[in-house]
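Task: encode each sequence below as structure tokens.

Item 1
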Amino acid sequence: MNIMIAEDSVLLREGLTRLLEEDGCTVTAAVGDGESLLRAVARIQPQVCVVDVRLPPTFTDEGIRAALVLRRQWPDIAVLVLSQYVEERYAVDLIAGQARGVGYLLKDRVSDVADFREALHRIAAGGTVLDPEVVTQLLLRSRRRDPLASLTRRESEVLALMAQGRSNTAIAAALMVTERAVEKHVTGIFTKFDLAPAEDDHRRVLAVLRFLDSAAGGVGGAGARGERPARPAGARASAGRGDV
């Protein structure tokens, strides 16, 4: 796998490079700002770009803006964004319109090497990976705005676990119910979201996107920076392929 890194911290940049190369990846560029990343990508398109949200010169949103440019100009390149804190508006901007091959993780997730590697391989294969803490905050904001009020408590729990990329079997184990019960709840979610079966649509992805879209109008307020909710079970959040 060919990877490019944009991270202003020399220590973290070199650490990521070493970690990825030990995993058999080829790091074709490791740069400290978004403009350098875009120039490098224009020369040689990698399979994946790992990008810090905050990069020079202002350390505000240069990284996420570079990631959005990548998504527009090179949609086949997978993008994994790293952030120090939960910033929901960035996650929503990143995923809006195209949810394949994209991820948003907190930096402390990198310390779990196995999870980080799995996230990279998942988005490289076209999956979507969201940090569980991001999912938690988006779900809380969505519930405050009441767009998901039609869901039962159990359906909300199932949707949150779906957004973490869990299979029906894993959801059943987490909730201590039968897999058949999970299938019933997933079907209920699809019905309430008006997601009829369609040959080309992955309804699990569409359900998670519906949840993210409902959160988009409520992000950016208190909690968008610095607040750290309790970490839910699981190490990743992703919308993978498949139906009920």
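Item 2
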Amino acid sequence: MDNIKYFFRGTPDDYIFSTGSTIHWIIVLFILLGIELIFKYRNELREDKYKKIFKTFIITILAIQQIVLYSWYKISGYFTIHESLPLYNCRLAIIFTIFAFNSGKKFYKNICCYWGMIGAVLALASPVLDPFRFPHYTGISFFVGHGLLLWSGVYFLVVEKHIVDKKSLESVLTFTNIYHGIIFIFNKLTNSNYCYLNAPPFSIDFIDRMSQFKYTFIAFSVFNISITMFYLIYKILHIHLLKKRTIKNMFKVY
């Protein structure tokens, strides 16, 4: 019982997770291994049996992760309106990913691919965790949530062959900017920093010296540029793979 209480404790340790540490590399390599397995067994995952198992696994784990996280915020007393709402891009992307697996709607898949994969890569490369020393639920939740976001995006693109086209780019950019506009106002009203529109997740000297207007403009721009870059990278890889398949098929003919 004491171990469980410690795992879900609400008193922070003022601990900062060490980026590039051994545990960080182990977690990243494990997530990369999962991506490799999705690529390797993509044909098997298209079969109804394995498709159902994979979808059930992702939905179940993400749902549990979300329910336990927000229950912990409430019960532990750690909840604050400034940090604990599901308003960050990755938190919302997780919810949309669950919707995507349940409904199959393209818009939800687009959010998973654009927001989820971009956000997961950035978060896993430079983790910003709650100040609790391991073992603690928030650390597990962070890596499980972002890891499964990345796996889900890869699954949609590689297994289901979800197409990221110009229309999806336009819809995600429109949604992103409207959403961020609303969040910017919410941040101002509540003195919060959701989506890091008011300040970066960690202190950087030259950014800290920027005016609020300049930083927020750059933050909006970075989101738009990242989404556009994701689209362009996808298109380049997609064209490359199509050419590779065409050449392979030509050799088969001859």
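Check on item 2: The mean pLDDT is 91. The chain is about 75% helix and 0% strand.
End of task.
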